[in-house]
Amino acid sequence: MQIPMRRNRPLKTIAIASGKGGVGKTNVAVNLSVSLARLGRRVMLFDADLGLANADLLLGLRPTRSLHDLVTGAVDTLEDILVEGPDGLLLVPSASGISNMANLSPAEHAGLIRAFSTYNQPLDVLVVDTAAGLQDSVTSFCVAVQNVSIVICDEPASLTDAYALIKVLHQDHGLRRFRVIGNMLRTPEAGRRLMQKLSSVCMQYLPDVILEASGMIPMDDDLRRAVQRREPVVSVFPGSLSGRALTELARQVDRWTVAENDTGGIGFFVERMLQSA
Ligand SMILES: Nc1ncnc2c1ncn2[C@@H]1O[C@H](COP(=O)(O)OP(=O)(O)OP(=O)(O)O)[C@@H](O)[C@H]1O
Ligand SMILES: [Mg+2]
User: Which atom of ligand 1 approaches the CA of 131 most closely?
Assistant: First the structure.
């Protein structure tokens, strides 16, 4: 008798990263996830900011468990820690308490891999919200996904730090292709200029790197208001400037292709992440 093989659907995986902090990663990750869920995709948002986790706050959710409980063995399955948000979006709450994935013991590794690889609900997209900067945990999450999106804003430090992150991911980890999202832009022209600046430094010093502009999000007081209300701007002010731009970003992301053979699901993602850590 043949044992049927479980075949996962291809899973699209995206990390939202930045060099400098406070450029809007979490807002991009949350609103992108909510918009994709609204398009009918089954979305998991992984809060990988191990220090200052706040995706739950922006969604108005109050998780009682986190990745930390999986690592310590307080719970066994991913379902035990998942929290449901708008349109069926699933949040993996961050693991405050784990400072670095590289410090986990072999048993903790195995527990995490088991919990993720036995999760068998259908999923279309995994969005990973990372911490700012060049910490090892950030690079290991970036190495584990198919699409790294770097958020930049119109400040010199944001550009130099984005360049430093791209350089590390390229030179130390072999990544070549990056999507770039401009945020808090005062004019469309400012967005184009910013993108051009980053492209020209990369072309000069990292000629093998390919950058792709993937979204321009305006500076918008409605987004700040949404943050204060603990609701995603695409839910509470969908017609605002940032709401429309973030919804458009989700439509773009929805058109990105996934290799048909990338069917390892989130189990593979976690394995790759731990391997690189
Ligand atoms: N498009 C925007 N328009 C206006 N304000 C914005 C916009 N995007 C982000 N902000 C402001 O920046 C703040 C920080 O955003 P967010 O928490 O998403 O950044 P982050 O990059 O995740 O920060 P950290 O590096 O600390 O994780 C928000 O609370 C909001 O006040
Ligand atoms: Mg954040």
Answer: 27
- 107 C-alpha vs ligand 1 centroid, how far in Å? 36
| Amino acid making up residue 80 | D
Q: Which of 20, 26, 233 to mutate to test the pocket of ligand 1 (most atoms within 8 A of CB)?
A: 26
Q: Using alpha carbons only, what angle is made at residue 144 by residues 133 and 123, rounded to the nearest 5 degrees?
A: 115
| Structure confidence by residue, pLDDT tens digits, 168-215 | 999 999 999 999 999 999 999 999 999 999 999 999 999 999 999 999
Split at pLDDT 50, 70, 90, the class of 102 is: low
Instruction: Classify each residue of 180-196 as buried b or exposed e, where b means 16 or more C-beta atoms within 10 Å of its C-beta.
Output: bbbbbbeeeebbeebbe
CATH code of the domain made up of 12-254: 3.40.50.300
What residue spans define the domains of the chain?
Answer: 12-254
Report how far ligand 2's centroid is from the alpha carbon of 1 (Å).
Answer: 50
Q: What are the φ/ψ torsions at residue 127 (nearest 5 degrees)? A: -110, 130
Q: How far apart are the first and last CA of the chain?
A: 40
Could you identify the atom of ligand 1 that is nearest to the CA of residue 54? 17
Cα of 68 to ligand 1 centre, how many Å?
25
Ligand 1: nearest atom to the Cα of 217: 1
Query: What is the length of the chain?
Result: 277
Tell me the whole-structure pTM to 2 decimals.
Answer: 0.95
